[in-house]
Amino acid sequence: MIKRTIGIVGLLIAVSLIALLNPIPQEQPSPSRWLKTNAQGQVMSPWSGPWTCVYDTKTQLLWEVKTDNESIHDGYWTYSWYDGTQGVENQGDCYFEKNRCDARDLITRINSEKTCGLDNWRLPSSKELLSLVSRDTKPGEPLIAKDFFPQTKRGDYWTKDSQQRLTGTFTYLKEGAMAIDFVNGHLTKLPYRNASFVRLVNTGYVEP
Amino acid sequence: MIVKPTTSWALLHAFAIVFILINLFTGLRIATLSRPWLLELSALLPQGALHWLHIAGACGLSATAMAYTIYRFNQRPQRTTKTKETTATTEKTETLSDKYHRGLTWLAYPLVILSLLTGWLQFIDSALSVVDIHFYAALGFLLYLLLHAGGYFIQYGWPALKRAFIPKVTGSKPSWIIVLPAIAGLLLWYGIGYQPSNDLPVKRIPLTTLMAIDGITDEPEWNDAQEITILTRGGANFLNGETPVSIKVLENGAEAFFNISWQDTSKSLEHLPLVKTKQGWQVKQDGFNQFDETAYYEDKLAIMLADQCDSGGGGTAHLGPKPLANQPANFHGKGYHYSDDGKIRDVWHWKAVRTNNMHLADDNFFGSPVRSRAGDRRYSAGYIADGKESGAYVMNWQWYKPEVIVPKRLPKHDELIAPYQMDHQAEHLQWVISWFDYTPYLAENDHYPIGTVMPSVMYRSNRFEGDRAHVRAHGQWKDGTWTLELARPLKTQSQHDVILQTGTCLWVSAFDHSQVAHTRHQQAIRLLFEGEHD
Question: Is position A134 within any domain?
Fold first, then answer.
């Protein structure tokens, strides 16, 4: 009888230990295609922030991350397509230029700032920008991994692919550049003067 | 005297063991929602959609209890005869152990009655406060099992199991009574499947009648609307965790209007305020880091609508830290809402600060669980917001950390936050700040003294637009009662909204300055549109 009493007490202790030694699991970040980096280009944990750039381990591209802090990276700013020789200057809207804004303004400022430690930022190609399109989104969200690319708008983002012959209502403007619409993930030709969003890319980042 | 284990008795005993264990384990998991300390036992409790199992167990236990009553009644004449014959010997042979177990058995009877009675009272959403009694009866059962089963084990060892499950009266055949639990339980379960929901007639009003959605129910049409009051239970901060919610609904053929009121002694608008400390700005919180804030949060009300009326949050409540094996655990351990029948449940989430000043409720839904995202610390399974075209509230921190945060913006003028430095409960404080009254944070502008309080909910634009803005809503708090008016088109054409029509079922949950710890009720409220019969 004593042995059995000890057995019951042992069972109670074992049950208590099982409960105590198995607390609610605290999740840890899971591995991801994307790596956050800070303004100096140092990699951060997926659940930390704020972050400045995102490195795509699949394409080896480093992407600018948009903000809502009214800096040059603010996601609300729009730009006309202009590279210094072709396009249309200053047809977008931002706070950081005296005049209105174009893509060259952002490239100049971001290279001068050495965002994420780099100074060779540029507009992405259509193929590069299309690599960001994701269909795994929640209702109403832009088609992108919003957990890494916040402040992405449901709108058109410029690519570097210019000298595109315009058709339809824009035929009279002759040429424009390719953009990607993050509402449906499609490529679209837009006149240079169009005020669209911009996300810059960099191929000079070396994964640590 | 101890009952000799006949075959019928052994089967009834086995039924009772199974149903009691089902109810204890599922019930303790359900209880973790309102008694978080029980999460210490989480590893021992089942996870998932457990409400139906708890109710099924209750059906089985109720039927077993009925069958056992009949069984004992049928046994009575034999026992009386035998008693006369054997009284003298029984008195002599009854041991201390027999007396102990007989006493314990008499303890089990009131526990069964109490558990079933209080359980069914909760199931029918009785206005009686019986949650605590139900819980303590469950704890009583745990103690009983220990003393009863443990006592037999100590006394007899493993043969006690044989004694419990194998009939000792040789040649005894199972009586017809033993099929009663199965039949009665199935009948009860079948009946519950067609449970009579609380029907709420919805009166039609002329399309030309103006119904102001302002939280002031002074339109005469409300006087003619039928009211239903449901006692909702299990929420944090409410007195006894309970609050009665009264609901009236009207419709005009194009839109439905809801008038919902509930008791809440405190008007809570102080939503995760920021306070300046020696280390920097901090978010005042007590649980927000685990997504279960219960101190510094706004009051809320959620309404769930569905085209079916299942119990357990319309079948969407999946309890436990990790009810989805291939998705992340939740930090608070309570569970997730999601549907696993491929259908959505419409959820209107009115928030006293974040949406009340937009004159909206947040139009959300419970759908199939989405895939987790590597960059999101919080996974919300099937709880998803409808899409929006624009409009947002933004929290005034660049990135949330439990220790110190950096605000997104600081006020353009100190006067903007001066009222918040005095009485935090003052009537005129809205605890919402305007994006354009504030400027981006710069350390050199952060001259605020330690102790400065600043609201954290910031309106970037006036309100949501698009699918997420289908539900107009505004609430007013007065004398310990929130009164909320809502309006939504009967059909929105959104795949994330439920059509409002006869047969649409709804549930309500109130939140008293808590993030997820809401009250709930079992029986759906079924809308009956009187206009459809014209």
Answer: yes
Residue A44 pairs in a beta bridge with A36
First to last CA, chain B: 67
Per CB-CB distance under 8 Å, the chain A contacts of B440 are 69-71
In a domain, A207, yes or no: no
Q: Give the count of domains, chain A.
A: 1
Give B191-194's long-range contacts (Cβ < 8 A, gap of 24+). Answer: B192/B55, B192/B59, B192/B311
Please enumerate in sequence order all residues whose Cβ is within 8 A of that of A134, keeping only pairs 6 or more positions apart, or say none.
Answer: A143, A144, A145
> A63 in a domain, yes or no?
yes
Strands B453-454 and B274-276: antiparallel
Domain boundaries, given as residue ranges, for chain B: 7-193, 198-264+299-387+468-533, 272-289+391-463
pLDDT at B193: 67
On whether residue A13 sits in a domain, the answer given is no
Domain, as residue range, for A81: 34-202
Structure confidence at residue A23 (pLDDT): 78
Question: Distance (Å, rounded) from C-alpha B256 to C-alpha B4?
Answer: 63
pLDDT given for residue B455 in this prediction = 97
pLDDT digits (tens, 9 = 90+) for B26-67: 999 999 999 999 999 999 999 999 998 999 899 999 999 988
pLDDT of residue B74: 80
Q: Which tens digit of pLDDT belongs to each residue from B217-254?
A: 999 999 999 999 999 999 999 999 999 999 999 999 99
Q: What are phi and psi of B303, to 5 degrees?
A: -120, 125
Of the candidate CATH numbers 1.20.58.1120, 2.60.40.1190, 3.40.640.10, 2.60.40.2890, the domain formed by B198-264+299-387+468-533 belongs to: 2.60.40.1190
Q: Which residues contact B179 (CB under 8 A, 6 or more apart)?
A: none
Chain B positions in Cβ-Cβ contact with residue A47 (cut-off 8 Å) = 375, 377
pLDDT band per the 50, 70, 90 thresholds, residue B195: low
* Closest CB from B157, B331, B373 relative to A147: B373
User: From the CA of B8, how many Å to the nearest CA of chain A?
Assistant: 29
Among chain B, residues having any CB pair with chain A shorter than 8 Å are 39-44, 146, 150, 153-155, 157, 321-322, 328-329, 331-333, 370-377, 379, 384-389, 394, 398-399, 408, 440-441, 460, 466-468, 496
ipTM, 2 decimals?
0.91
Percentage of chain B exceeding pLDDT 90 = 69
Greater model confidence, B12 or B301:
B301
Angle at A188 between CA A183 and CA A193, to 5 degrees: 105
Please give the sequence-ordered ranges of beta strands (E in DSSP) within B271-371, or none if there are none.
274-276, 281-283, 300-306, 317-319, 335-337, 345-351, 362-366
Interface contact flag, B373 A4, Cβ < 8 Å: no
